Amino acid sequence: MDYRQLLRPAPFLLIFLFAAVAVGDLVQKLTEEPPPPPEIAGIAIPRFEALEPVIDFRLEGGDPAVEILPIPELGQGQWSAPKPQGVWTRGAVADLRLEFAAGGHRHLIMECLPTSGKRPVGSLRMTLNGLELGVIDLVPGWHRYRIALPEGAVHPGPNRVVLHFPDRGPAERLRRALLIRKLGWFFDDDLGVEDLDVPHPVSLALDAERVTIRRSGILRLPIVLDDRTDALQMRYRFSSGAGRAELVVEKSGDGSEGPSEILRASMSGISGRIRVPLHGRRGAYVVRIRADLETPGSQLLISSLRLVEEGDPTRRPWAANPPPN
Fold this sequence. Notes:
The protein is mainly beta. It is built from two helices and 21 strands. It has a six-stranded mixed β-sheet, with no helix packed on it.
């Protein structure tokens, strides 16, 4: 039997199979979604710490997508769960701890409501880090109290505030004494109780590449860099007054692996744009934006904040920008 007649179509069959595999591979590549570009805030929740924080104890807080610091740590068994109007102290003593990045605040403003009825609370004695702040005569109803703080009483790191209620005895450990809505920490002597009425300090719309900072402070945005990342690009402007700001990109971590790699750029004037080169860097980093708003009502508006890749059609050289240190 002559097998050559049977083998004659084999090359065409092999070519057909090879072409089918190649076309199938091409279709698979075309239908596969490309890997997503690097994103800001892709590994952890952003954090913001105001230079002069106003702490709101009500259940309805600010933007849940941002962690606002400092977060008060309430003494166990001395406070109620948060209510829509604030948080109640319980018993004769209640303490809270706060950790500040910077200290030196000279005034504390507290918005609160003392309990009334048959066993009203009429006075409050406060200490801060063991220093006496004096006795406050409480009035019925909601009221704001301004308390002067000794110089150096508030320091960087943990701080402890203790509230003593002489009208409450040790046996009344579950009885409510004071409903606290807000606490504000300030440096300036020239302020009033209306300074407690401030808008939420920061709002993020990272999907739209926008950030608004309404109070002086530090915003930390986590990012992950890979070999596609070319640069961090942003546009900004200050509204309703003057201000300064600084942008820093640094390695994420606790510093145990050595000094952080830092790239730095400054923001000043009314508006501008910045491009921080990041090509060749990989891993977890943090974008840190420190805003110093010099005028009440001033805001730092970032209208574009994004990581760009090599070959991005929106890429611009922006050679006029001062190079990062």
